[in-house]
Amino acid sequence: MATNDANVRTRVHYHKIRVFSPEFSIVLHLARSVQILLMPHPVLSYMVELVVFGQEEMKRYLRLFAEAIRLGLRFHLLIEGPPGTAKTLAVNQMVSSLKKEVGDIPYVRVTGSQDALPSDLIGDLDIGKYREGEMDILAGPLFSAHGRDTPGIVYADELNRFSEYTLIIFTEIMAEWQVSFPKTPITKPLRANVIATMNPYDISGITEVPQHILDRFNARIVVNYPDKETELRIAAQHTEYYYKKFASRLKSLFHPLVSTTRAMRKLGVPLGPRIYLSTLDLLALELSSIGSIDNDTVIQHYENAVRSRIGNLEEDKQSEFLSTASIALRGELEGAKK
Length: 338
Ligand SMILES: Nc1ncnc2c1ncn2[C@@H]1O[C@H](COP(=O)(O)OP(=O)(O)O)[C@@H](O)[C@H]1O
Ligand SMILES: [Mg+2]
Description:
Elements: E1 9-10, E2 12-14, E3 17-19, H1 22-38, H2 41-49, H3 56-71, E4 77-80, H4 87-102, E5 107-111, H5 118-122, E6 123-125, H6 127-131, E7 137-139, E8 152-157, H7 164-176, E9 178-180, E10 187-189, E11 192-198, H8 211-214, E12 219-222, H9 228-242, H10 247-265, H11 274-289, H12 295-307, H13 315-337
Parallel strand pairs: 1-7, 4-11, 4-12, 5-8, 8-11
Antiparallel strand pairs: 2-3, 6-7, 9-10
This protein binds adenosine-5'-diphosphate and magnesium ion (MG).
């Protein structure tokens, strides 16, 4: 967490937490480690133990990314695909196994937002010092990815939510492993490889990533929803992993939930596996609290899981979509019983 350049004071702006001194960021780091140790078992091992089914091309390029880090080479990867295609899961697994193997690699994850300014990522002129006649930088969070022995890793999630203005800073990092601070003569090294993910479907708050930035990536991988068999395995793995106790009761719902989601997807809304996974979460909670579930309960939870993903549609489109989804799911559930 602390800065990699002794001359630079760190200003971490990460997940809405602002820290102004390296000492304090060490405290924060320790606090986080303690928090991690206290996490219940499933959360701690989530990244490591879940298997990513299929998505072979993505996994292959992630292996190459890890190899480039080991060898100290420049290599940047862009993964594009709809929500819920295991992009984040696969990246987290790659980073965590690389860390196990070569030790603590400097790593920073930033999530794209239209409101983020370049200074939120790279930092800004140190005004206090400037007043005293010195020119220095309060380094931003990206500098925590600066690696000395091996290149560090910048994971830019939802890259195309950054504005074009902010996207520019990735160009210099990717091409030259350094950052030049606007309106100053200051340049700082930032030896890190960039792995970026982005979602092609989302319509709100998205930027078209300019060609000159795309050009800096060694490869752009496109992932998509897996086939039905794989989606059934995803549902089964999730249920076995988190709700083993209810797995046999929930098993008969995998097919209806997955089939309905795939059918609704064909109507043009990108409903990913999270729709049926969060429905299964709700149903496991029902089983745990009241011990039984009926078809109406399944449909109600499914509708509410879907509702939170279609906020972009107009109101009457939303209700039309929801009623189509519940009719389809009822058909599947009643068909499954026969
Ligand atoms: N191919 C897959 N194999 C295993 N689990 C998957 C797969 N695709 C999706 N999932 C499940 O869906 C969840 C969401 O995936 P995530 O990595 O967050 O998606 P993305 O970052 O692409 O939006 C994962 O945590 C996992 O439980
Ligand atoms: Mg993601």
